[in-house]
Amino acid sequence: MTLKEEIIQIILESKHITKEQLEEAILLQQRSKLPLRKILIDQKLINEEDLLSLFSQKLSIPVLHVIRYKLNSEIISIIPEEIATRYNIVPISRIGNNITIAISDPLDIFVIDDLRVITGCNIDIVLSPQEEIEEILNTYYKKELSSRELPWEREINVDLSSESEVAKLDTIELSEIVKESQKPPIVRLVDLILTLALKRRASDIHIEPVVNGLRVRYRIDGMLYEMFTIPKIKQNAVLARLKIISNLDITENRLPQDGRFKVRFDSREIDFRVSVLPVNFGQKIVLRILDKSNLSIGLDKLGFSPQPLKLFNEAIGRPFGMILVTGPTGSGKSTTLYSILNKLNTPQLNIVTIEDPVEYEIEGITQVQVKPEIGLTFTAGLRALLRQSPDVIMIGEIRDGETADTAVKAALTGQLILSTLHTNDAASSITRLIDMNVEPFLVASSLIMVCAQRLCRCICPRCKEEEKIPHDILDTLGFKEKITFYKGKGCQYCNNSGYYGRTAILEVLMINDRIREMIIEKRSCDEIKEYAVKELGMLTLRDDAFIKIKEGSITLEEAIRVTMEE
């Protein structure tokens, strides 16, 4: 007889409910997938006090009313809020390597195993009412959230079993690592890392070995937050699990590796791009989260200001020529280009991409992965693509003069070319192409539009409040009109950061006849930019950021941080 069956038998023998009521509750539990304990209490078939008493008698676990005790915030912080909330538990004491937690459902047998893996400690339990645990979670973690650090930004205080065990990590047999990586606690731990990242809207997961553990960090809205540290003794198993699901060679520990895998989350298909890099204390794994649903929303939903959006739509309506999107890594260039491809993706057009690596797989589009080791470079691939009668070509990045020259000539022979460059502003892209030994008259003839892009963090809508900015700062920045400034106070919804989500700011330079003349004359990028601002009314990155400030979507501090080079 299983533990659950024994508990059911005890409940029946206690005469609190009838057999028919219990059978009905079990059917309801099977349909709803909720814990049986919750069903019994919600249906008022038994009160929680009586149920805990029965659990205590059968399992010899003491009942403790945690609400009556003053708990130590240092003990509470041992387990991050995300973990405590997910498992509905509260840590109440720690003695050496033993942590005592309060739990309301002792039938959840996975909790103990998972917490043992996450904390590296032995776990003892006491029983407490659900409401009391929830109140403790809300009270103590909310108090912790008001401090400078978030609970998941702190490292869990883990006592390693012994130095000798850690020293043996490098000599563990491969078969043992594989066996350990397939154990349910390790599988659930990796699933938890992925699930929390998706729930927190992370764009990257950094899993990095440090001297005393395996640190897990998430990049949320462009910033890295430390979540927790996994005990060193579990490092090899966790890394092996990630390499197995990414179809990577788990025997290779000396060379970098790249892989990918897919998961389904909230009815969405999410791609994970995996990069493994050998480092001092093991292998660092970075997982890039690629959500295809972000691409199908179209240019209109990317948060572009009206003027840049109008110019973008005008440019992509041209039958041939080159459109460049520039900016540093992580500025949203790929999302913008893929959104354009989605808009152009019709049966009437032959759309081809050449990328390193292919980030998103899009149905209806031919996508080529660069493989320099076999000679399939951007240049070689692009030349081959031109023989495939393409209408639209997306080049992942123009990295060298040969690729730039081939792309420019393709734009002049009837193809619409989309690509990226790493430059600080739009006008600098023109001089960068010329510096790559592309003839100025070819650059002038092929370019339709150049766009510089950045991502700014949006103010959290749930804790948004007015902010007073000193007049001397406003005068320095050139604010003449009266504007109401806002900031995020910080709340649980936004991880106490004051920011939630990001929006794009753009500097869009449309190439007209006068700018073509300036390119051929080899005028500097500063002269071209000055002309575009004065004569064409081009918005610089900071101008567009100030529009977002006036709309109340971003803070003044964020606008200055992102447009610092101006």
Q: What would you say this structure looks like, in words?
A:
- The protein has 566 residues and is α/β, with parallel strands linked by helices.
- The protein is built from 23 helices and 18 strands.
- Helix 17 runs antiparallel to helix 21 (525-535).
- The radius of gyration is 29 Å and the shape is elongated.
- The termini are far apart.
- The model is unreliable at 143-172 (pLDDT under 50).
Which helices and strands appear, and what pairs or packs with what?
Elements: H1 3-13, H2 19-32, H3 36-42, H4 48-59, H5 73-76, H6 81-87, E1 89-95, E2 98-103, H7 110-119, E3 122-127, H8 130-145, H9 163-167, H10 174-181, H11 184-199, E4 202-210, E5 213-220, E6 223-231, H12 235-245, E7 257-265, E8 268-279, E9 282-291, H13 306-316, E10 321-326, H14 333-344, E11 351-355, E12 366-369, H15 378-385, E13 392-395, H16 401-412, E14 416-421, H17 426-435, H18 440-446, E15 447-459, E16 464-467, H19 471-477, E17 485-488, E18 499-510, H20 513-520, H21 525-535, H22 541-551, H23 556-562
Parallel strand pairs: 2-3, 10-14, 10-15, 11-12, 11-13, 13-14
Antiparallel strand pairs: 1-2, 4-5, 4-9, 5-6, 7-8, 8-9, 15-18, 16-17
Helix pairs in contact: 7-11, 10-12, 11-12, 15-16, 16-18, 17-21, 18-20
